């Protein structure tokens, strides 16, 4: 009997078909589809959502799927340092993690498609088939990525996701900004992917397989190797443990790029040049999520390396704090959201790095919904503001766009981590994991986790502040511009996604209320934890716990979760409250000016962009120019020089022929004489 | 006799095209070029070879008879296909037809000569990839230079004469160097232990080992080393491997688009194909000894070519330097002597052939319309020629190694293969260095695209810019489809390549 | 009888004189004469060694050489005539339009 | 059963010369150019056919047959070269038919060409130093006249003068060398000289050595080899183009024919070397000097004809490998010398063709410099294609005839252990590609503006024949090289 898994492939294929259809329409140059291709996209993502739900239900029934369906390339013999032939294949891994992610992605994608009707179609944009083609491919790539059962396939779709982000960020290609931002997004993530690709190659070279799950999966082999039960190739003279750390960090490069972690976060704020629904998709469910999803997907591998975990946690926590601090001073609504995304993904990283697999995944889940909500809400505001994104031009939108306001508020509460909104539960759990593992672990990892916890905690304060600063400036007070005064809310296609997401952002946190469980002792309500425990052994929560303790040396201290939760909640409230105080008035002042030069630093993102652009423009480009000059002058110069020298030699040599026949006779005689004398001596004739 | 028929037909087609009036030459040439294309596809469908042609594998479509005797060696007509040459043969026929169609717009004088030369080149390329006797091979090898010389020199850009003569002399000198190396190895080294210079005979005689004698005052090992170096340098010019690459940008920039397509698409592959056949198949022990140098050279080519591409302002120059970069991967893959390394290198030849052909063609279509290739002269072309630009973008991403396109497959195979190579010392480091090329390639292609294709439309020239005609765009689309097809299903060629390279794996170890 | 080596010395001397004249004279006619001297140096050898070896080959051949020398002079004079017509001189160093 | 005298091809050439002269002196009108060309071409073709027939039919001539008390020998090599001379004569007479500067004097020109060809044919057969000298003069004297043929032309006169003066000097040296060899060995017949060498020269080694070197000088003159090459650039440049074609192809080949036989048969290498007269070494030196000078000087010329003249010197250097790579014991001697002969044969077509194109250009009045040829490809594609083929063949680019002959030649050198000589030759050959392609560039790449008169039929026919000879050698090279190597091997038997 055909079950959900038999159709799972269609989850990714459906949006791909909508992409093909839209490309065909775009190529024809005619308006063949109603709504410029939106309807096929909605139908396709709707179908994906249904199938994802079906898969989700099937998985919750305890079934999982881990099969190869297409052999991309297969070697015939074991060569080099490998002990068996390489097989590069495509397959699907359907377990709780991927099933959950499929659901998130297809849902957000569907809502983004719907919202686009309002944001793009109703605004009279041109090039809609191209837009929907991009969305379709984007969704398909991300779904393919989520389905992937091995690292190579994951990498391939990871790259396709990058391509789609390029196409969509640069959607308004006739302007100067978007193409530049698109280029930057692709390039910066490409830089990360470079390391990722080395990592993929290294995984194949080390383990001969890149499968995520099952007995013959690379995390499993690595585990056996560390336990001394198996041997693997290592390179560069490293011990297995060190080499696995290297591989893990290489793959992490891709994660840092895609999930916009420090120092490769610079592309993300620029990516706001794209249409806002695209931002929602990128930030909530697809591209940025892909990075951390990857860490979760191969968590069994990272769990083996305390060093890698520490780095993940530190990078995450630092990014969380760092991005949050920049979000404090932004003037544009989407910029604030952009930095909040970076910051929140930092939390997810922190959670994963701290050994909180469930916590990180949980935050990934909640963040997907509330960030999608916030972006779509911002999109709604932007529609109303006629594409003016400056918050100082807004104000008082609360009355004019109530649906947007309340849903946006829900999202903001979630983002700020105010109980009981979704973000509270997940962020709290992330910080809690960092704390308990930091306290419980004795090695350097423990210290790292405590430092990370500290940074994460501070970021909570900032998050609360910038979130409510944004809410206050946008929706409260008096309208500060003509457009704001006349703003009006969009149609159903704007409101519906907002409402759906608003409900989710409010409630989705309830699936894993660990503090409540701790308080009440009702651990049955940690649904997500249970859900993820239902995975096959090699990718299950229990296995990860085991690995973390066995190889990561991570142990949990006994700290009540509600204490930690209370602390972070308090900080979030302080942040939100101070924002309310500072910006809650009818006509708020730009208090950030008071920060003086610090504001400049923050506003300019710690000059991260500047130094990277400086590196590109003042180091790399001049270097290439120098190389070009060198190539022309020296390398090519030698080539031309050989020819010149030959010709010069020829032009000298031919001067022998000076036209005087007596000279000819003389030279002839001389030549003969030399030969005669030479041979006479040589031959000993006389 | 199928191969001979195809080659012969191409020669006749060249002659016919040379003689028809200019007005119809383009159509006639395209129509005639379809026959070899169909023929090679037939070869592909009927391919029944296995193993490597040089190490005693079963050849498909083998023909062999004696021609004459040279210093005691039988010179033979000897052709046949194995899994390495068949893909290249298909590539040749495929690109020739597309290049001919893409020439309809830009070539507006002496058409019959132009298309005649294209077909003449095709005939020689087919011969070169199928010939298994050294002399026949060398004759075809050299004869491909002639049409390209004329194509650049007659229909090229402002500095075409310089570029043509540089290309011609540089590559010819290289060929002679290689020739001397090979002759020294066979005449001097192998001496009477072989009675023909058919490549399989030479390869198998060398494989048997111990057959190489002293010559030129060199002992057997030194002789092999010298011969290897001579051949390697000779082929490296053709590939081209930095720093022997400087003829390439000039040739590409000056060549008319269809010639660039053939140059980048097929002619560069001659170098790596020959390296594979000669250096790496016949003298794997030397190649293994020199692996660190060759790998370093490959990685250097990748990075150096890419950095140079970054500095260019001319679209064609960008693609030209990026070819240097891409072919560096091939070198790295070959010297890895692992299954995926060598097979990936071979696959990359095809993949790069298609993608670089696509890129040159797309740049050519833009040039046809704008009459400039300088990045600074134009912007916002996407507005005026959306389809061409769309395909160009797709092609550029193919060049950057976007998964599910052929370029990624080739590069990935190479990376995997070279990473776990046991022949290259510190293989992961070389691999990692070379892989950085994928970042730089994205840098310069995206930068160039941003400046030319996007932003508000402007053009420093008095030309009406409109959509390109269908016959300009159709070849691009066909190529793009081929690139994607190979990227999604590498086994179209990979299987036979793996089969054919299997005997080479492991190198001289 | 004069030792045969003396003839060799003589012929070499004559040859050298001819060569010297040829290298130093600029007049085409002197040039021709010098060549004649050199040919006759060869003839001395032929005749002397013909006697020494006791066969007639050398003597006969010297006749051939003389005949051919005459023919050569005939052609040479013709060319010198044309030279004079075109260059108004019989100086062999005058025509040097073609060089390098 | 018809039995023809073994020297029939030579006789035919001589008789044709007489017939031409006879008709020319008897005719009353100013026309008759067609008849003269016809006689010459038919006669030369008859000679070519006979030589070919003798070579291929089972006449036993290839093994060698002495005539005139051993003064002359007819064998494979002499027939091979005679066929070559006859073929070049056909091309040259045919090409000269349309060459305007010689209008009204075709009889003389053809007569002289045929006489010179007769002399060359005898050179190829000469089995005695006496015959060699006479034949050499028979070939040279008409050549002087041919070079100076354009009496009103200062260039032609200057060329003739220089050619003559150097020629006279060289023949004096040559004959003095003969006299010394005679002094040392007591004979002029090559087999007898060889016998004397074999039995030891005693104290006359020095005399013989000087003689051998001077004979080599005479040969070097004829083949335009360094340092006896000085006449060549001027003579080829100044002479009427068909004459240049004739001299640079046939006359050079004749010099080599003479050299091959005289040195191989007359001065057996083993005996000569042990006596300290290592003429193979001499030719190695000459070969290197000749090809380097020829090619490097050719690279910077600005007149096409002069470039071809220098390149002709360069080719003499290649062919010298045929002598330089000989050694006393080697079994490969016949192969390498055969390869040299084959190269001369191919050269006879491609080089003659190239000079005939120059003749065509002179006829069109386009000028002599490279840039004067600009754009001819577009205007006269057939002739330009032919010229291109000749040039690339000269450069040794596959698949043209020149590639094969060079290949066999260089391979022969490698086989004989002279790999360094082959390397130098290859380097020179690649340089030659540069300057040959300059002409190609002018023909095809440049734009030109000419007002060209039509396409002269006979000249085009000659070009076509030369083109066929250059290109068809691709499949037909087997018989040529085999015949040549067989003939050469017979010499060492």
TrEMBL record, chain A:
GO biological process: ATP synthesis coupled electron transport; electron transport coupled proton transport
GO molecular function term, any single one: NADH dehydrogenase activity
Annotated transmembrane regions: 6-27, 39-57, 97-119, 131-148, 154-173, 194-214, 234-257, 278-296, 308-329, 336-358, 364-384, 405-425, 445-471, 492-513, 562-583, 661-685
Predominant subcellular localization, coarse grouping: membrane
Pfam families linked: Proton_antipo_M, Proton_antipo_N
Gene Ontology CC terms: membrane
PANTHER family, per database record: NADH-UBIQUINONE OXIDOREDUCTASE CHAIN 5
NCBIfam families: NDH_I_L (TIGR01974), PRK06590.1 (NF005141)
Record's protein name: NADH-quinone oxidoreductase subunit L
Organism: Halolamina salifodinae
UniProtKB/TrEMBL annotation, chain B:
Compartment(s) where it occurs, according to its Swiss-Prot or TrEMBL record: Membrane
A Pfam family annotated for this UniProt entry: Proton_antipo_M
Domain of life: Archaea
Keywords: Membrane, Transmembrane, Transmembrane helix
Membrane topology according to the record: Multi-pass membrane protein
Ranges in coiled-coil conformation: none
Stretches that traverse the bilayer: 6-21, 28-45, 84-107, 114-132, 138-155, 167-191, 197-218, 225-247, 290-312, 318-337, 349-367, 387-415, 427-448
BP-aspect Gene Ontology terms: ATP synthesis coupled electron transport; electron transport coupled proton transport
A GO CC term assigned to this protein in UniProt: membrane
Record-level Gene Ontology MF annotations: NADH dehydrogenase (ubiquinone) activity; NADH dehydrogenase activity; ubiquinone binding
The NADH:quinone oxidoreductase/Mrp antiporter transmembrane domain, residue ranges: 131-425
Family: Belongs to the complex I subunit 4 family.
Protein known as: NADH-quinone oxidoreductase subunit M
Organism of this sequence: Halolamina salifodinae
Native organism taxonomy: Archaea, Methanobacteriati, Methanobacteriota, Stenosarchaea group, Halobacteria
Automatic annotation (TrEMBL), chain C:
InterPro entries found in the cross-reference section: NADH_UbQ_OxRdtase_chain4L/K, NUOK/Mnh_C1-like
Transmembrane helix as UniProt keyword: yes
Membrane topology note: Multi-pass membrane protein
NCBIfam families (alphabetical): PRK05715.1-2, PRK05715.1-5
Family that this chain belongs to: Belongs to the complex I subunit 4L family.
UniProt cross-references to HAMAP family, sorted A to Z: NDH1_NuoK
Protein name as it appears in the record: NADH-quinone oxidoreductase subunit K
TrEMBL record, chain D:
InterPro entries: NADH-Q_OxRdtase_suN/2, ND/Mrp_TM
Bilayer disposition of the protein: Multi-pass membrane protein
Compartments where located: Membrane
Domain NADH:quinone oxidoreductase/Mrp antiporter transmembrane: 126-431
Cellular component terms per the entry's GO annotation: membrane
Pfam families in UniProt: Proton_antipo_M
GO molecular function, one term: NADH dehydrogenase (ubiquinone) activity
Membrane-traversing stretches: 6-23, 35-56, 76-97, 109-126, 132-151, 163-184, 204-221, 253-273, 279-300, 307-328, 340-361, 382-405, 417-436, 457-477
Keywords from the UniProt entry: Membrane, Transmembrane, Transmembrane helix
GO biological process, one term: ATP synthesis coupled electron transport
NCBIfam families named among the record's database cross-references: NDH_I_N
Record protein name field: NADH-quinone oxidoreductase subunit N
């Amino acid at each position: 009997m055909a079950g959900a898994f038999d159709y799972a492939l269609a989850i990714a294929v459906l949006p791909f078909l909508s992409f093909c259809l839209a490309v065909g329409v775009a190529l024809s140059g005619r308006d063949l589809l109603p709504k410029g291709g939106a309807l096929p996209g909605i139908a396709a993502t709707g179908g994906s959502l249904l199938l994802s739900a079906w898969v989700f239900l099937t998985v919750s029934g305890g079934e999982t799927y881990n099969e190869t369906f297409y052999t991309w390339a297969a070697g015939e013999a074991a060569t080099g340092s490998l002990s068996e032939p390489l097989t590069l294949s495509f397959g699907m891994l359907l377990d709780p993690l991927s099933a959950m992610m499929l659901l998130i992605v297809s849902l957000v994608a569907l809502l983004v498609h719907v919202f686009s009707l309002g944001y793009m179609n109703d605004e009279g944009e041109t090039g809609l088939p191209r837009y929907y083609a991009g969305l379709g491919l984007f969704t398909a790539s991300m779904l393919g990525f989520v389905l992937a059962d091995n690292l190579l396939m994951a990498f391939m779709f990871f790259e396709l996701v990058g391509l789609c982000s390029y196409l969509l960020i640069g959607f308004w290609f006739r302007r100067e900004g978007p193409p530049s931002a698109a280029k930057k997004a692709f390039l910066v993530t490409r830089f990360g992917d470079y390391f990722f690709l080395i990592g993929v190659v290294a995984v194949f070279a080390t383990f001969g397989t890149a499968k995520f799950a099952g007995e013959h999966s690379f995390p499993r082999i690595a585990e056996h190797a560390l336990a001394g039960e198996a041997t693997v190739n290592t390179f560069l003279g490293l011990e297995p443990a060190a080499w696995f750390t290297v591989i893990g960090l290489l793959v992490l490069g891709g994660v840092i790029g895609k999930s916009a972690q420090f120092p490769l976060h610079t592309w993300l704020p620029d990516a706001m040049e794209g249409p806002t629904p695209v931002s929602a998709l990128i930030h909530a469910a697809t591209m940025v999520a892909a990075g951390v999803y990857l860490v979760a997907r191969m968590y069994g591998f990272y769990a083996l390396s305390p060093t890698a975990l520490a780095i993940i946690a530190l990078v995450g926590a630092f990014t969380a704090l760092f991005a949050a601090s920049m979000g404090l001073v932004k003037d544009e609504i989407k910029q604030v959201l952009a930095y909040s995304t970076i910051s929140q993904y930092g939390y997810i990283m922190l959670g994963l790095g701290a050994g909180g697999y469930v916590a990180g995944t949980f935050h990934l889940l909640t963040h997907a919904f509330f960030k999608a909500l916030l972006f779509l809400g911002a999109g709604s505001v932007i529609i109303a503001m006629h594409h003016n994104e400056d918050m100082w031009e807004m104000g008082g939108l609360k009355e004019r766009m109530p649906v947007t306001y309340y849903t946006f508020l829900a999202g903001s509460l979630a983002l700020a981590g105010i109980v009981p909104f979704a973000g509270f539960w997940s962020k709290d759990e992330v910080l809690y994991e960092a704390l308990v593992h930091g306290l419980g672990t004795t090695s350097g990892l423990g210290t790292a986790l405590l430092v990370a916890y500290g940074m994460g905690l501070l970021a909570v304060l900032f998050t609360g502040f910038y979130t409510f600063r944004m809410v206050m400036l946008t929706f409260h007070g008096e309208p500060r511009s003509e457009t704001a005064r006349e703003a009006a809310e969009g149609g159903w296609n704007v409101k519906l996604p907002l409402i759906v997401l608003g409900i989710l952002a409010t409630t989705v946190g309830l699936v894993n209320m660990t503090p409540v469980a701790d308080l009440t002792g009702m651990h049955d309500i940690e649904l997500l934890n249970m859900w993820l425990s239902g995975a096959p052994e090699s990718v299950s929560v229990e296995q990860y716990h085991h690995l973390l303790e066995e190889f990561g040396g991570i142990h949990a201290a006994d700290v009540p979760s509600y204490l930690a939760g209370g602390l972070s909640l308090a900080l979030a409230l302080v942040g939100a409250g101070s924002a309310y105080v500072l910006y809650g008035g009818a006509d708020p002042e730009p208090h950030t000016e008071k920060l003086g030069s610090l504001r400049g630093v923050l506003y300019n993102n710690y000059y991260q962009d500047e130094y990277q652009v400086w590196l590109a423009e003042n180091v790399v480009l001049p270097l290439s120019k120098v190389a070009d000059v060198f190539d022309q002058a020296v390398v090519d110069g030698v080539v031309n020089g050989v020819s010149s020298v030959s010709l010069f030699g020829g032009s000298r040599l031919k001067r022998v022929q000076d036209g005087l026949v007596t000279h000819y006779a003389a030279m002839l005689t001389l030549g003969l004489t030399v030969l005669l004398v030479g041979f006479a001596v040589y031959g000993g004739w006389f | 006799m199928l191969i001979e028929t195809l080659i012969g037909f191409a020669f006749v087609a060249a002659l016919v095209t040379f003689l028809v009036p200019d007005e119809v030459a383009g159509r006639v040439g395209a129509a005639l070029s379809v026959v070899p294309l169909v023929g090679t596809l037939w070869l592909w469908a009927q391919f029944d070879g296995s193993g490597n042609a040089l190490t005693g594998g079963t050849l498909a479509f083998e023909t062999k008879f004696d021609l004459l005797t040279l210093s005691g060696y039988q010179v033979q007509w000897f052709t046949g296909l194995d899994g390495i040459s068949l893909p290249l043969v298909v590539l040749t026929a495929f690109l020739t037809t597309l290049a001919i169609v893409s020439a309809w717009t830009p070539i507006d004088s002496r058409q019959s000569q132009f298309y005649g030369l294209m077909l003449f080149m095709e005939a020689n390329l087919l011969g070169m990839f199928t010939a298994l006797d050294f002399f026949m091979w060398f004759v075809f090898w050299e004869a491909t230079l002639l049409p390209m010389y004329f194509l650049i020199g007659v229909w090229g850009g402002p500095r075409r004469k310089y570029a043509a003569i540089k290309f011609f002399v540089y590559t010819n000198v290289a060929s002679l160097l290689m020739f001397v190396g090979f002759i020294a190895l066979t005449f001097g080294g192998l001496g009477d232990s072989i009675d023909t210079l058919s490549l399989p005979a030479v390869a198998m005689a060398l494989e048997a080992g111990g057959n190489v004698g002293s010559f030129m005052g060199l002992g057997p090992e030194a002789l092999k080393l010298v011969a290897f170096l001579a051949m390697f340098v000779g082929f490296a010019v053709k590939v081209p491997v930095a720093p022997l690459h400087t003829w390439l940008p000039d040739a590409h920039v000056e060549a008319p688009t269809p010639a660039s397509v053939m140059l980048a698409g097929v002619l560069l592959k001659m170098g790596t194909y020959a390296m594979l056949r000669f250096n790496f198949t016949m003298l794997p022990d030397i190649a293994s000894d020199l692996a660190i140098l060759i790998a370093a050279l490959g990685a250097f080519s990748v990075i150096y070519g890419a950095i140079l591409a970054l500095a260019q302002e001319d679209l064609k120059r960008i693609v030209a330097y990026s070819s240097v970069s891409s072919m560096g991967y091939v070198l790295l893959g070959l010297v890895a002597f692992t299954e995926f390394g060598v097979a990936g290198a071979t696959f990359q030849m095809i993949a790069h052939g298609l993608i670089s052909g696509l890129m040159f063609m797309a740049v050519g279509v833009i040039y046809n319309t704008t009459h400039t290739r300088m990045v600074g002269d134009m912007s916002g072309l996407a507005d005026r020629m959306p389809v061409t630009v769309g395909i160009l973008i797709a092609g550029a991403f193919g060049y950057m190694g976007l998964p599910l396109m052929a370029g990624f497959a080739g590069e990935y195979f190479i990376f995997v293969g070279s990473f776990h190579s046991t022949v290259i010392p510190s293989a992961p480091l070389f691999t990692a260095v070379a892989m950085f090329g994928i970042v730089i390639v994205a840098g310069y292609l995206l930068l160039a695209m941003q400046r030319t294709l996007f932003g508000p439309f402007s053009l420093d020239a008095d030309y009406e810019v409109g959509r390109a005609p269908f016959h300009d765009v159709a070849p691009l689309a066909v190529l793009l489809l081929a690139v994607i097809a190979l990227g999604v299903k590498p086994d179209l060629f990979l299987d036979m390549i793996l089969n054919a390279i299997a005997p080479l794996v492991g190198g001289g170890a | 009888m004069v030792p045969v080596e003396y003839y060799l010395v003589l012929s070499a001397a004559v040859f050298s004189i001819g060569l010297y004249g040829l290298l130093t004279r600029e007049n085409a006619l002197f040039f021709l004469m010098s060549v004649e001297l050199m040919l006759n140096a060869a003839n001395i050898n032929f005749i002397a060694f013909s006697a020494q070896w006791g066969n007639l080959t050398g003597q006969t051949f010297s006749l051939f050489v003389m005949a051919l020398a005459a023919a050569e002079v005939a052609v040479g004079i013709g060319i010198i005539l044309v030279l004079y017509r075109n260059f108004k001189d019989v100086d062999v160093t005058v025509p040097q339009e073609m060089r390098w | 059963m018809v039995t023809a005298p073994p020297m029939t091809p030579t006789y035919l050439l001589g008789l044709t010369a007489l017939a031409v002269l006879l008709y020319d002196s008897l005719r009353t009108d100013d026309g008759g150019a067609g008849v003269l060309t016809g006689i010459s071409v038919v006669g030369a073709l008859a000679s070519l056919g006979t030589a070919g027939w003798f070579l291929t039919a089972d006449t036993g001539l290839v093994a060698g047959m002495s005539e005139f008390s051993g003064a002359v020998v007819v064998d494979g090599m002499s027939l091979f070269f005679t066929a070559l001379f006859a073929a070049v004569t056909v091309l040259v007479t045919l090409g000269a038919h349309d060459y305007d500067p010689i209008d009204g004097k075709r009889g003389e020109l053809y007569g002289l060409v045929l006489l010179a060809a007769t002399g060359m044919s005898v050179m190829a057969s000469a089995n005695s130093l006496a015959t060699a000298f006479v034949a050499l003069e028979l070939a040279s004297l008409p050549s002087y006249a041919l070079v100076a043929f354009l009496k009103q032309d200062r260039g032609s006169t200057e060329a003739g003068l220089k050619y003559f003066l150097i020629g006279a000097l060289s023949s004096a040296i040559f004959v003095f060398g003969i006299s010394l060899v005679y002094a040392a060995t007591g004979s002029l017949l090559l087999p007898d000289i060889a016998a004397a060498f074999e039995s030891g020269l005693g104290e006359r080694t020095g005399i013989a050595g000087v003689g051998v070197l001077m004979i080599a000088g005479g040969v070097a003159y004829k083949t335009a080899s360094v340092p006896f090459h000085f006449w060549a650039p001027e003579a080829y440049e100044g002479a009427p183009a068909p004459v240049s074609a004739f001299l640079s192809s046939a006359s050079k080949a004749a010099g080599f024919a003479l050299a091959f036989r005289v040195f191989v048969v007359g001065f057996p290498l083993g005996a000569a070397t042990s006596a300290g007269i290592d003429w193979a070494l001499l030719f190695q030196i000459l070969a290197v000097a000749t090809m380097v000078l020829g090619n490097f000087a050719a690279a910077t010329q600005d007149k096409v004809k002069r470039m071809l003249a220098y390149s002709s010197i360069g080719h003499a250097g290649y062919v010298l490998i045929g002598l330089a790579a000989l050694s006393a014991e080697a079994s490969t001697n016949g192969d390498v010398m055969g390869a040299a002969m084959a190269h001369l044969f191919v050269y006879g077509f491609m080089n003659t063709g190239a000079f005939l194109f120059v003749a065509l250009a002179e006829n069109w009045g386009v000028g002599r410099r490279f840039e004067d040829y600009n754009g001819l490809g577009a205007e006269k594609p057939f002739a330009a294609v032919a010229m291109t083929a000749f040039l690339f063949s000269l450069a040794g680019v596959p698949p043209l005839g020149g590639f094969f002959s060079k290949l066999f030649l260089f391979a022969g050198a490698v086989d004989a252990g002279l790999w360094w000589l082959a390397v130098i030759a290859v380097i020179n050959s690649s340089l030659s590609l540069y300057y040959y392609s300059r002409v190609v560039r002018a023909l095809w790449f440049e734009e030109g503006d000419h007002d060209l008169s039509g396409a002269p039929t006979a000249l085009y026919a000659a070009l076509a024949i030369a083109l066929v000879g250059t290109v068809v050698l691709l499949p037909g090279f087997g018989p040529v090289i085999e015949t040549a190597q067989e003939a050469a091997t017979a010499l060492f038997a």
